[in-house]
Description:
The chain is an alpha+beta fold. It contains five helices and 21 strands.
Amino acid sequence: MGRARRNSPKTTPVPTVVTKKHTPQTARPVIQQNYHQYYISQYYPVFPPGGSHWEDMDSGNAKLVVGESSPPVHHKQNKPVSLSFDFKFYGHFIRNISISTRGYLNTGQYPSYVTDTQYVAPLSDPRLDSSLDKYASVRYKDSGTSFTVEWNRLYLTNQTKLGPFVFQTTLMKDGRIVFAYKEAPARLIDDTVRDVKVGVSDAYVPSLVLDGGEPVIEYHRVELGLDKVHSNAVVILVPQQTCSELRECSSCIGPSIVDFQCGWCQKVNRCSDGNDWLTASWKDAGCDALAKFPPCLSIAKSEITTFYPRTSTSTSVSTLVPTSSSEHVVINSNESRPTTGNAATLSPHRVTPGPNLFSVSEHPRNNHRRQRTIGTNVIVGILVGVVILIAIVAWTVHVCSKMKADADVVVVQGSHIGHFHHHKP
């Protein structure tokens, strides 16, 4: 199995900065907010007052991934865990994740060699080592409405003098993701180091049959700067509504989502923009073409423009489980030919979504508007023609009436002149 790599323009952030300075009771904290299409990131340079978003792992039923008595091999393994609730990730609902001691969660439904394309990473760094400190640990806790993982006293290999890292990530039932950093060295990580990630990413396989040569499409990634990782900082990722969450044709092609070109496929009875976990079945059913002519296209305009509120109602989780492969093909956009490698040394690159189902001008809701515009133009044209015809008839009648009046005057004048000359001496 391979991974298709395509270059894309960097996400253009839309900053909204609150500049009020923090005071103990009344002022709001400084917030930097950026838009990433699937998520909005909110960065707090200091823990917000009234709630630090830091979970107390010493209370409750926290469980160990690795700890003081763990065998050395456990410090380099991922631990599979099942959530007690459905967690919305990129518009899909998941239950199964795996915890890495290297500072990230794998959210993928695919084999381990593509985990670098499906992740939640508060600080993913292959140099983080939980075996360098006697009191280091990786723990997790599930409250029923949130799931928290804590990486405690982890050091960077060969850079122990920098100090330990202590940080958490929390998955909220409503889909929010929290990165909280309690301790992080001031001189964090050189930006040139590869494989260091802070953010989230998702991918899909564009084929129902996995033969080891099919590319894996990493269709979106939220990349947060390493400057966000420092002591007492918090980052919150707020999920945005996606096409796959819309359950009706009218809401799918309507204006309720402006950031995606959604299309409705009656054959599979779902909404999509062509980039999600079910892309393979979507394409296999020929939905790229069917989505251009949805069955609800002829419904009333008032129904099309009805706003459907955003919901996070859970649906069944996809059970697609591809087979594994020992090797994969890496296609780098800057290289003329693919190279074969092992996933352990793979450094992911940013890629773009696949092609949209249709251009903006081809979108069903735009076609519907265009049809309404054509009909309106025809009616207006007919009315204008009728007005012109009436004007012509009125002008003709007016001219004829005037000509008749002029003729009568001539005859009268002629008779009068003749009679006058008849009596001349």
